[in-house]
Write a structure and sequence with these properties.
single chain, alpha/beta, eight-stranded mixed beta sheet, 16 helices, 12 strands, 15% strand, prephenate dehydrogenase (NADP+) activity, Prephenate dehydrogenase, oxidoreductase, NAD+ binding
Length: 376
């Protein structure tokens, strides 16, 4: 008999997981959400077999429950589930981007004899909602599981195998605190830094509008994540405050060290700072791997900024069936090669475009090459 899986929250993550389950498993998927409109849409696209706005009905006799809600709502949902008559063999998991606080809250389920296995699919999109859901959202991304230490191997394997079938993600087992420190360093802290830069420059711009006028290229790329959802990130940071406070202390100490080197004119120390950064950046794993932020494939083309250029390039690529995601004329090119930035969603289009444009005699700077070295 097919297992019943209840997805609590039919948004981007919950909807994508539901689609994967329907496409690649024989599970019966029931969707729960406060939005009847979103639930009807999920039903229309085949993401769920049934839907309801009644939580008790959604989880009744469920073999597995997936809490696909924002971090700020997961603990409350766990408390609510602990009060409901769940199936004794039911396993509950979540998709929250922080884990220690959620695992602590899951003790209420444990007291009721219900197994909780924390989860975090490390993939997403700049879009949100069930309308943006797709069954392969998590493919090749890491999907971290943080099981309760007392969970049986069979229970962990059951969740892992089901999620792998549904998502095609790379499942990883990790301690909750370890997860929070890592994700805090590679995602949460960068969001704070990006938002901090945007706010500081925004203050300067109130006195002189040229700060924003000249803010292009590197500044825009570096601060892209500074435009993230305020409420969502408020809840994430507060949920991961223990790990983040230590990480922020380390960051502040590093900035004090660099400030001191600049103040004292320590040339070797400043150069060593950037040399180590450059070396470590080049050692990062394949940047095309999907992660918390979707990969972007971009190249810059050196062309004259004149009428007809964009049309010429778009036609060249279109004739080769190469899909362009976005085109941007660089108004300020400090530290940016090429006047035209072209973005692609797929690596094959990105590589093909570079080949076609160079074949036509255009100078193309790819993100895999060091423009800094070409200037020397």
């Amino acid at each position: 008999m097919p297992e019943k899986i209840a997805i609590l929250g039919i948004g981007l993550i919950g909807g994508s997981l539901a689609l994967g389950l329907k496409e690649r498993t024989d599970a019966v998927v029931v969707g729960y959400d406060r939005s009847e409109k979103d639930l009807r849409y999920a039903m229309a696209i085949g993401a769920v077999d049934d839907w309801t706005t009644s939580l008790p009905r959604a989880v009744s006799d469920a073999d597995m429950i997936v809490i696909a809600l924002p971090v700020g709502q997961i603990k409350q949902m766990i408390e609510t589930l602990a009060k409901l008559p769940l199936k004794p063999s039911c396993i509950v998991t979540d998709v929250g981007s922080t884990k220690s606080e959620i695992m602590e809250a899951s003790r209420k389920l444990k007291e009721k004899g219900i197994v909780f296995i924390g989860g975090h699919p490390m993939a997403g999109s700049h879009q949100s909602g069930i309308q943006a859901a797709r069954s392969l959202l998590f493919e090749n991304a890491y999907y971290v599981l943080t099981p309760d230490p007392e969970a049986s191997l069979w229970e962990v394997q059951k969740v892992s195998q089901l999620l792998y079938k549904a998502t095609r993600a790379e499942l990883v087992i990790m301690d909750a605190a370890h997860h929070d420190r890592i994700v805090g360093a590679i995602s949460h802290l960068p969001h704070i830094i990006a938002a901090g830069l945007v706010n500081v420059v925004g203050n300067y711009n109130e006195e002189n509008e040229w700060f924003h006028r000249l803010a292009a290229g590197g500044f825009r790329d570096l601060t892209r994540i500074g435009a993230s959802h305020p409420v969502m990130w408020r809840d994430i940071l507060l949920s991961n405050r223990k790990a983040l406070l230590k990480l922020m202390d380390d960051w502040i100490a590093k900035m004090v060290e660099v400030r001191s080197a600049i103040s004292d004119g320590e040339q070797e120390q400043i150069e060593a700072f950037f040399s180590r950064s450059r070396r470590l950046r080049q050692q990062l794993p394949d940047k095309k791997r999907r992660g918390i932020l979707e990969p972007r494939y971009e190249c810059h083309v050196d062309v004259p900024d004149q009428p007809g250029v964009i049309g010429k390039i778009a036609t060249l690529l279109g004739n080769e069936n190469i899909n362009i995601s976005n085109l941007e004329v660089m108004e300020n090119r400090e530290e940016i090669p090429g006047v035209l930035k072209i973005a692609f969603k797929k690596e094959k289009d990105y590589l093909a475009a570079i080949s076609v444009l160079r074949r036509e005699g255009l100078e193309v700077f790819s993100e895999d090459e060091s423009w800094e070295e070409s200037k020397v």
